[in-house]
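Exam prep: given the inputs below (a chain plus 2-phosphoglycolic acid), describe the expected output before reading on.
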Amino acid sequence: MDKQNRKAIIAGNWKMNMTPTEAGHLIDALVPAVQGANCEVVICVPFTDLCVAVAKCSGTNIHVGAENVHFEKSGAFTGEISADMLTDLGVEYVVIGHSERRQYFAETDETVNKRALAALNGGLKPIICVGESLAQREQGVTEELVRMQVKIALNGVTAEQLKNVVIAYEPIWAIGTGKTATADQAQEVCAAIRKVVGELYGEDAAKALTVQYGGSMNAKNAEELLGKPDVDGGLIGGASLKADQFAIIVDAASKG
Ligand code: PGA
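Solution:
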């Protein structure tokens, strides 16, 4: 199984943007713009936008995701949201381990792993983010670092559960900076991710895994990035907040 047989997924990561009212307007514009997509379309939105997103996306081809999930099932964790709360709402995906959470909210590879397991056990599909800083790239440790992040994130994930996992390669230096990784850099690391998953779960599982690129992907560069053999989709920040831009990226992924 190769690229054509894998699920291409374009996921918007809205970050801390859009009130519920604004979210409703954006989704109203998105629904017609992506209805002909030949790839999976996901919007990962703030917790407060999930209700409106699930309601407005119901009966459309847009799937809804959250931007984080807590690893405990329930209890005294003020301010946190569990996997069960999300699935009960109709949420399907969840972003885990985004570099902004690692950088500003003390997320570690270990908590990423705990969240991934909680998400999978709760019936959510985790989009697990990995990626290096500029200093790490310059030190030549990108591949080792990303391999380690992937291995720790997947610790305890069964082969059956892996079928619901998406991994997003997001070089930190490319996020929100307008500095996209070149298509070759994206390909190189996405292939390395597939390789380590192959070592852990076997060749067939690796070939079936959706690996996204994220980091300043936009309407202009999407086609080249998504044309690479191991880049199966994108995790889109800034460009996911504009329906027309997001739709162009979805179109690029639909072409394969
Ligand atoms: P960006 O964000 O597209 O704005 O660079 C990507 C991300 O953080 O997922």
